[in-house]
Amino acid sequence: MSQSSSDIQTIQAIYSAFGKGDVPAILASLAPDAEFSFAGGSPNVPWHGPWRGPEGIQRFFTAMGEGVEFKTFEPLDFAAGTDTVAVRLHLVYEVRRSKRVVDEHQVHWWVLRNGKVIALTHFEDTAQVVAAARG
């Protein structure tokens, strides 16, 4: 199996764990210095971060779980390069506080080192998310 195929399988396993609510399995796939962030992230969105290390990324999942209810979380396409995986996803979720629905496509840009995730950057429709988070 090529490294690219192995990296895609790692990310697919993370999405599977996310779908089951298995955050410990996700955290086990991270390097100790991993970072999750949002390109164009806003301080008005509690889950935007950035989040560093397993403890910080655990807080990301807590903020996301408290902030939204997912209706759709659908990875659509996977593409891999050297130590990177790009994933196009369709997401639909309701922001709990405002009851507004976000329906968007995102791109997740994963960076791996020795089979462990060192970075995830979310690219999303930030204007739509900020508007929903504000209510």
Question: What's the short version?
Answer:
The protein has 135 residues and is α+β, with helices and mostly antiparallel strands.
Features:
43% strand, alpha+beta, globular, 135 residues, 6-stranded mixed β-sheet, single chain
Low-confidence stretches: none
Q: What string, H for helix and E for strand, traces the elements in order?
A: HHEEHEEEEH
The helicity comes to: 25-40%
Q: Kindly report how far apart the N and C termini lie.
A: 47 Å
| Count of β-strands | 6
User: Approximately how much beta-strand content do the residues carry?
Assistant: 35-45%
Major sheet: size, sense and barrel closure?
6 strands, mixed
Q: Mean pLDDT, as a whole number?
A: 96
Class from helix and strand fractions:
alpha+beta
Tally the helices.
4
Q: Radius of gyration, Cα only, in angstroms? A: 14 Å
Rough shape? Answer: globular
The order of strands across the largest sheet is 2-1-6-5-4-3
Describe this structure in words.
This protein is α+β, with helices and mostly antiparallel strands and 135 residues long. 36% of the residues lie in helices and 43% in strands. The protein has a six-stranded mixed sheet with strand order 2-1-6-5-4-3. A hairpin with a 5-residue loop joins strand 4 and strand 5. The mean pLDDT is 96.
Please write out the topology.
Elements lengths: L2 H18 L2 H6 L1 E9 L12 E2 H15 E14 L2 E12 L5 E13 L2 E8 L2 H9 L1
Parallel strand pairs: 1-6
Antiparallel strand pairs: 1-2, 3-4, 4-5, 5-6
